[in-house]
Amino acid sequence: xxxxxxxxKARVEELRREIDHHNYLYYVLDKPGITDAQYxxxxxxxxxxxxxxxELITPDSPTQRVGGQVQQGFQAVPHRVPMLSLGNAFGExxxxxxxxxxxxxxxxxxxxxxxxxxxxxxxxxxxxENGLLVRGATRGNGEYGEDITANLRTVKAIPxxxxxxxxxxxxxxEAYMPxxxxxxxxxxxxxxxxxxxxxxxxxAAGSLRQLDPGVTASRNLSIFMYAIxxxxxxxxxxxxxxxxxxxxxxxxxxxxxxVCQDISQVIDYCAKWHEKRFDLPYAIDGLVIKVNxxxxxQRLGATLKSPRWAIAYKFPAEQAVSTIKDxxxxxxxxxxxxPTAILEPVQLAGTTVSRATLHNEDIIRQKDIRIGxxxxxxKAGDIIPEVLQVFPEQRTGEERVFAMPATCPECDAxxxxxxxxxxxRCTNRNCPAIFREGIIHFVSRGAMDITGLGxxxxxxxxxxxxxxxxxxxxxxxxxxLIKLERMGARSSxxxxxxxxxxxxxxxxxxxxxxxxxxxxxRAAKILARQFGSMxxxxxxxxxxxxxxxxxxxxxxxxxxxxxxxxxxxxLVERLARAGVNMQENKGQPDPANQPxxxxxxxxxxxxxxxxxxxxxxxxxxxxxKVSSSVSKKTDYVVVGENPGSKYDKAxxxxxxxxxxxxxxxxxxxx
Length: 670
Known about the structure:
Elements: H1 6-28, H2 36-52, E1 76-78, E2 88-89, H3 92-105, E3 113-119, E4 122-129, E5 132-138, E6 144-146, H4 149-152, E7 168-176, H5 179-191, H6 200-208, H7 213-217, E8 222-231, H8 239-249, E9 257-260, H9 263-276, E10 284-291, H10 294-300, E11 310-314, E12 319-331, E13 336-348, E14 351-357, H11 361-366, E15 370-371, E16 374-380, E17 384-390, E18 400-401, E19 415-417, E20 424-426, H12 432-443, H13 455-463, H14 478-481, H15 489-502, H16 507-513, H17 521-531, H18 534-538, H19 542-546, H20 553-564, H21 566-577, E21 600-604, H22 612-621, E22 625-626, E23 636-639, H23 645-653, E24 657-659, H24 660-668
Parallel strand pairs: 2-11, 21-22, 21-23, 23-24
Antiparallel strand pairs: 1-6, 3-9, 3-10, 4-5, 4-7, 7-8, 10-11, 12-13, 12-16, 13-14, 13-20, 15-18, 16-17, 19-20
EC number: 6.5.1.2
GO molecular function, one term: DNA ligase (NAD+) activity
Keywords: DNA damage, DNA repair, DNA replication, Ligase, Magnesium, Manganese, Metal-binding, NAD, Zinc
């Protein structure tokens, strides 16, 4: 072990400060200051210095977020101040009754309210001593919670050290899973035959109760802090001031709160969020109304169950009744047969819904879902339409019971259900549906991102015998494409250009595109950054892989199994010969030097030429950043048809607004 010089110690402390600062910019302010590659370089320097000088490792070091030990269980810990539940209000009358009770107990006093979004997640408590995170716990029964400190440390929006050395602070917040992360997690679990989470709240709760913190770290959780539970020493005098102070300490605080002078303003603010909530990147199930003055809160006190100074306004459930016209099956890229209900179209949560996922045969049987049934449809966390229940009493006798087939609907190969899994799978590795879905995945936005190569073109290429594996895409010629339906001269050349451009994608994108089981986008990025090249990863053992934070045995075994197969190794070799990048960051332009570097965009409304995701990726390719909310730090707001409240806020703040044609011109004139 080499000597710790003052220079080494100073460099370690400098790296920690710099990494903590960039974590704050990225995870709290949503305003990254450096590229991923630059961040990785800083982290790697710190890891190497701490490995060489372990005596310098501290509990608040950024390297210590994910521990290597799997926990045996969760210990019950007491809350210093009980974490009470809130009473509920379901309409204007309930809110006015709450206001009447408050004013009755505070006769003659002026009362302000703070209205906040009610994040649909898991309530947690964080303890800080002298500015250092020492404990994190669930709400539990309000008196006692479970100690989940190791898991909460993996949530990068939670500071391990505060920006001020507060002697003791207990702060409360709501840990949650963003909508897009929830969708990706359930898609991966469905392909793996694992039970699905019903909504983002359950996904967040399940992720935080993992015995392996590495699993929690892989789930992309975030958090909003909403209250001070206990503070030693002087503190803010109002709830609004407390939120501002928490933000000053380095916590992530939701910006969508309002101080209201009376209950009528509260009611108006609640009404505004009935529709606006669908634009949020996270799920909310209502709003929370609190008396602003902390002195008044203390004097109002609490019942045994809930505080008298706060109430939760709950949104009515987004549900609709429809008829199940049919149940169809889709074979995914791993061979899983997924049943989908075809519905009579209904309006739900601001969109027309004509399909609902049924997930697997077990759920169909549990709910006794039949073709022809009247069904109650609900969006899980306002995201995915699902069949909540059917109405057997309305059956006419013409309904049909659905059963999973014994053979694949695409290739007639036997279908099996693996013990311990909920999914039925096609046993034919050469099933045309598995192959087609694999190619569609390979070219998708999160993978190789080949614009213009959608499902229709992929299907035509396969039928014409032009594509037998992903490597064949890089051998396509203009004369091959021009013969396809709806492919003219310009679209054919554009597609060839997109295929050529995809050769320069990162190794992480390629790894995800290969469709290795259990390797999602995050795992692909971790593997690419850790090994640096495809060759190094292909030579890795299970032992090499399992020592990497967030890469568990399941992923490790799947990666080793994938590269042990000769056909997969041949595919990688063919891709390499075609010129596809096999090294992380090779040929990748530095986003800091891109035309839109440092610019933050918000996209609202429906665009004609892009989906929301496509617009985001176009911006990010040119070094820009896309935010989910409008603030003074927003540089541009891109507006499509039927824009929401973000458009109004942009106008109020004087932020430049781009119509779609102006946005396209900006991209093209880079």
